[in-house]
Amino acid sequence: MAEQRSDAIVFFGATGDLAYKQIFPSLLGLVRDEGLDVPIIGVAKAGWNLDQLKTRAADSLQHHGGADPQAMQRLMSLLRYVDGDYNDAATFTELRKQLGEAQRPLHYLAVPPSLFATVAQALAKSGCADNARLVIEKPFGHNRETARTLNRLLEQYFSEENIFRIDHYLGKEPVQNIVYTRFANSMFEPLWNREHVSSIQITMAENFGVQDRGNFYDETGAIRDVVQNHMLQVLAQLTMDPPTGEEHEAMRDQKAALLKAVRPLDPAHVVRGQYAGYQAVPGVRAGSTVETFVALKLFIETWRWAGVPIYIRAGKELPVTATEVVVHFKRPPRETFDELVPLSSGHVRMRISPDVSIAMGVRVKLPGERMVGEDVEMILTEHAPSMLPPYQRLLGDAVRGLGELFGRDDIVDAQWRIAEPILDDVTPVYPYEKGTWGPSEAEALIGSDGPWRNPNPEMEQSK
Q1: What's the pLDDT at 386?
Q2: How far apart are the first and last CA of the chain?
Q3: Most-buried pick from 224, 257, 296, 356 (CB within 10 A)?
Q4: Of 222, 161, 225, which is closest to residue 442 (Cα–Cα)?
């Protein structure tokens, strides 16, 4: 049964950075590409009026949205603005007035998580939550208990099916392509298990530091910022069983089942690092032990993946900015041609960003009389990333009531369960120099399953 579309969009934090960089461009895209034609109401406490919000929107679109005068004009005609404090009931009385005849609004909370419950409660008391949907940004809690508390608070006013937890990584075309490639090609399924896979590596590297986000990052760290959410979502896409049935929940059901089977992380299998100079960043506490790099090993307790080590690595100030997955296959039971072949010979590589590629590593014979070979990589496909921004895709799905690409409460809880044992200062933080691949202890972690496969700055070419 088709879901009813939201008939108004309200975004709190309308004068903030997220609205400027992501929400205005996404709204323009929905107006241009999907004919979005509903009231769009910005809410903030800035002392602004509607004309000032439109000026901010125009500036945003000039820098982030691309030139489309006709769509921009239509978007401007849909904009409304409510200025007021989120703790003031009058703000929400005015919002209800601005909603007019709308009966199914979508409320987007681009505000700090500490305000989620405040806004949700005020929406309910003012009648703005009736038949409404709620979109919230990560982080969904600071640990498992705070995430559960947040869910309990939100579910007092909104049903789970009407809560949309945005993880923009799930809106990326290349991340969705992992699932599609696996399940649209029967050649992969017979190999995608413990009988044939020796290990898996997932790397998310950034060649820049925390920049002007020192205060936020020092409360978060790499584990909370990208591992507990983005990297575990990629892991789920890569290792889940195929969804069954046609229900939209089928995909999330399989992700939930997979994540619930991941063994909670062992501090002995975690290496944390901090790049040189991090503590000089404004907003970072003196003597901070927050990690800017993490490498970890985990296991999935299912028949498909029992005993297969999975390595995840994420960090800032590394040599390149790239995210990719490498699935290493086991060597044949014996080397027929009596060669010394690297254990890492044979793999599938999926590059997620900044470009997109899928490649296979195989061993081929060198020319000549001798039966000896070399490892080569064949590029199966390579292309530029999709031009459809993740936030546009996700906001459009939320308007339609499609939750497949959003976090569900049990999935979020499973992710926190996995990360809980390694949060905060349970392991040492090792220093590393900018432009390196993190502390040397990360190499010791991967040991004989290594070495780590370091992404190249650009798409590799087949040999």
Answers
A1: 58
A2: 50
A3: 296
A4: 222
For 194, the token pair is 């413990």
What span, in angstroms and rounded, lies between the C-alpha atoms of 417 and 266? Answer: 12
d(CA 437, CA 320): 9
Q: Which two tokens stand for residue 293?
A: 């790099």
Active-site residue set: 230
- For residues 304 and 307, give the distance between their C-alpha atoms in angstroms, rounded to a whole number: 9
Residue 93 has pLDDT above 80, yes or no: yes
pLDDT digits (tens, 9 = 90+) for 50-66: 999 999 999 999 888 77
Question: Residue 79: helix, strand or coil by DSSP?
Answer: strand
Dist. CA 293–CA 445, nearest whole Å = 14
- Strand locations in 320-441, DSSP E? 322-329, 347-353, 356-365, 373-383, 429-432
**332 contact partners, CB below 8 Å, separation of at least 6:** none
Distance CA 153, CA 117 (A): 6
Provide CB contacts within 8 A for 60, sequence distance 6+: 19, 20, 21, 24, 25
Domains in the chain (CATH in brackets) are: 8-137 (3.40.50.720), 170-386+429-449 (3.30.360.10)
Residue 141 one-letter amino acid? G
Q: How far apart (Å, rounded) are the C-alpha atoms in residues 291 and 431?
A: 9
The 10s digit of each residue's pLDDT in 143-198 is 999 999 999 999 999 999 999 999 888 888 888 889 999 999 999 999 999 999 99
Burial class (CB in 10 A: 0-12, 13-18, 19+), 335: exposed
Say if residue 2's pLDDT is above 60. no
pLDDT for res 387: 61
Helical (H) or strand (E) element with 202: strand 197-205
